[in-house]
Design brief:
The chain is of the alpha+beta class. Helix content is 31%, strand content 33%. The chain has a domain at 5-110: Gcn5-related N-acetyltransferase (GNAT) (Aminopeptidase, 3-Layer(aba) Sandwich), CATH 3.40.630. A hairpin with an 8-residue loop joins β6 and β7. The protein is globular, with a radius of gyration of 15 Å.
């Protein structure tokens, strides 16, 4: 079995990455925390790749995970769409993607990474806290019946 390789996404992998998102975000639906990513289309993911910096984890010839970084200020970046295909959860792929994204943000000169996650998710807020993210504020989002937790981490 090959090792996981992380690289910048290209439009050519948009359909594979859309499948990762559809698979990974089904868990949120089961938890009562639906997300638009669970219905990701190749077209939407291609646009995400065009507009932002997206990294994919590849293993055994296919995309098994992804993460997006979007510049939101001169020295800050938003991390979103961290996802691992259901078949690969629990194998450390999410940790590798998060490590890679944080290192890329640091190398690009950003001071802060921030993210938004469902406040009531059973493990994500705590996982991010263990990685050094701090709670910033609770926010509501249009079209969602639950609150989100905005978290931030210094990467300098």
């Amino acid at each position: 079995m090959s090792e996981t390789h992380i690289e910048r996404a290209t439009i050519a992998v948009a359909e594979q990455l859309a499948e990762v998102y559809r698979s990974a975000y089904q868990e949120n639906r089961r938890l009562g925390l639906p997300n638009e990513a669970e219905s990701a289309s190749e077209r939407k993911i291609a646009e995400l790749i065009r507009r932002n910096t997206v990294y994919v984890a590849n293993k055994d010839g296919g995309v098994i995970g992804g993460v997006c970084l979007e510049e939101t200020g001169e020295d800050r970046v938003e991390l979103s769409r961290l996802a691992v295909h259901e078949s690969w959860k629990g194998e450390g792929v999410g940790r590798q993607l998060l490590d890679y994204a944080e290192e890329q943000a640091r190398c690009c000169g950003y001071a802060t990474i921030w993210l938004i996650t469902p406040e009531e998710h059973p493990y994500l807020p705590e996982m991010y806290r263990q990685r050094g993210y701090e709670d910033a504020e609770t926010v509501s989002r249009e079209n969602y019946d639950f609150e989100f937790l905005m978290m931030k981490k210094s990467v300098r």
